[in-house]
Design goal:
Blueprint lengths: L1 E10 L4 E7 L7 E10 L14 E7 L8 E5 L7 H7 L4 H5 L4 E2 L4 E2 L4 E7 L9 E7 L6 E10 L7 E16 L4 E10 L23 E6 L6 E2 L8 H7 L10 E4 L11 E20 L1
Antiparallel strand pairs: 1-10, 2-9, 3-8, 3-10, 4-5, 4-9, 6-7, 11-16, 12-15, 12-16, 13-14, 13-16
């Protein structure tokens, strides 16, 4: 069931930060965020990808305390939002419907409008969910409208930590120890990242001369991969059951059979040629 929120945000061509405080009379599991860009004169849909217009999104659910920021994205990590929506779903059909954006590329499925469903799993009604959005419209003659709705369908009880990695051949990323790391996803940034107006992610480089030479979780032998193409099916397995959406682009994931530990964990990623990439950690509450 979809229950509309009374909150609506509107953005002009000058970028601004706005906060929606979402009140509800009943508990809910997720929130649908819908973006619509249109010409103010005649309502004709805009043609700029929504991911090019939104440069910040924070989802704050206060009852989770130190882990209240369930999603925290800036201009450099925003393109991970569609994948976050899919990873929050509990099964492949729900993941397929979790966003209208083509998650592997960041391109809108329909001109001028896009939506994402994000996990909330509200635990009480004493505190309101706060969503902070930094955005703009593509031109002075356009407006970007953002609306919200409450969902009561099942979502995974997870939150996310996302990191932008500038061009490098080697990077070690630690994840917060106040939660439990459930999986890792990373993707190589495309030449126009993060607001190219086209595919935001690089096409796959299977040659070791250009691609990733090694990925290791916690430096342990059992979770060290010298051929990272073994990890290239991970997102397709978890999100879609294997329709090969992500393998066409330079995506990798440690999700299947992920070793769960309450200790702080890290991933080491090495490349044969320098490139920028984005790392996403899927976390659950300790």
């Amino acid at each position: 069931m979809l229950i509309r929120s009374a909150q609506t945000l509107s953005f002009g061509s000058t970028e601004s930060e706005q906060i929606a405080i979402l009140k509800s009379n009943s508990l809910y599991s997720g929130i649908r965020i819908t973006f619509e860009e249109y010409k103010t004169a005649d309502g004709v849909a805009g043609t700029t990808n929504i991911m090019d217009l939104v440069n910040g999104l924070i989802v704050d659910v206060p009852e989770y305390g130190a882990r209240s920021r369930r999603i925290d994205l800036d201009a450099n990590t925003m393109p991970m939002l569609p994948v976050i929506a899919k990873l929050g779903a509990v099964n492949a059909p729900d993941a397929a419907a979790a966003t209208s954006i083509v998650a592997s590329t960041g391109v809108d499925g329909a001109a001028g409008v896009a939506y994402v469903d994000v996990p909330i799993n509200k635990q009480n009604l004493n505190e309101d969910t706060r969503i902070t959005i930094t955005a703009k419209s593509s031109a002075a003659t356009h407006a970007l409208k953002v609306t919200f709705a409450f969902l009561n369908t099942p979502f995974r009880n997870v939150y996310f930590r996302c990191y932008n990695i500038p061009s490098t051949t080697s990077h070690q990323q630690w994840f917060p120890s106040d939660g439990v790391l459930r999986g890792i996803v990373w993707a190589t940034q495309g030449s126009g990242f993060p607001d190219s107006g086209a595919n935001l992610w690089a096409t796959r480089e299977v040659s070791e001369q250009k691609g990733y030479s090694q990925a290791t979780l916690n430096g342990e032998q059992l979770t060290t991969y010298t051929d990272v193409n073994m990890l290239s099916a991970g997102l397709d397995e978890v999100i879609s059951g294997g329709n090969a959406e992500f393998i066409a682009d330079d995506w990798y994931a440690m999700l299947q059979n992920f070793p769960v530990s309450t200790a702080a964990q890290y991933v080491d990623i090495s490349r044969t040629a320098a490139a920028a990439f984005t790392i996403l950690g899927v976390m659950s509450d300790a």
